[in-house]
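User: Sequence in, structure out. Go.
Assistant: Echoing your sequence, followed by the structure tokens.
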Amino acid sequence: MRSVFSVLACLLPAGLIAQPRLENIRQLTFGGQNAEAYWSPDGRRLIFQATRDGLRCDQIFIMNADGSDVRMVSTGKGRTTCGYFLPDGKHILYSSTHEADEACPPPPDRSRGYVWAVYPSYDIYLATVEGEIVRKLTDAPGYDAEATVNWKTGRIVYTSLASGDLDLWSMKLDGSDKRRLTHTEGYEGGAVFSRDGRKLVWRAHRPTEPTELTHYRELLRRNLISPMRVELFVSDADGRNARQITRFGCASFAPTFTPDGRRIVFSSNHHDCGSRRFELYVINVDGTGLQQLTQFGGFTSFPEFSPDGKQIVFVSDWKAKDRYEFNIFVADWVEGEK
């Protein structure tokens, strides 16, 4: 792919880098930390989380697909994550800590390395697109977050500590019929269904060596995980027939199925393992055919295809004016060889 990038770069204006399969890239947000943008069922809106406009930690926002009419739809209290539209387009879900404390929870202690906090006060809430909370969907002790929805089957997949470990679970839209999907010790998260609702893809850190297991358990007791080595897994929608499709020994996450369900677009730093340089890649569901999609040179992640499959939204620090600025972009998706 490097030779392809080099040839295309020579044909483009200075400062513009070719991105295979991505054309007509448009920036939708400008400033702040904007992340995890996901489409509404009609493709007219996006829901995302952001620390912006004077906020101290992430809240949930909705905007039009062209970046206009940005409005906060979470409570403005606590910390939130992982907003997603329900099939009717009139309701959303997201995780929040506001019920435990209206203040932002403390950031994770990274004195002994880069870690993520899995706040035990996170629960998943169902709300209207106007921001009215309708129902609390989880109430088990510990972390409940990272929820996404399959619009065809009406199932939610999410990560929960309900079993004592960070497993994938699924439930109905009203929070009923909770089912544990994974049973291997380690962190399982960021799961999404294929469009037909028959498959799942997610990221996982499954330590096997005794020292790795001890480290994982010690971190989890402090409600922390280390995301430096996570791989992608695919399974049936009920968690059966799980198989690992990446073995990079680095960080691969934010997977999403292509509309046809045959490939997975995801973010990874395997080209520069251990760095904060993440690019988008596409891979077949059997782990073959890896192709790099972006070459922005910084952090790019959280891809998702529009309902009609013609566009892809993602988050990047490309063009950022500040070190910790992340913005939402959308591009036309180009099928076929480039």
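User: And one key feature?
Assistant: Confidence is low (pLDDT under 50) at residues 1-16.
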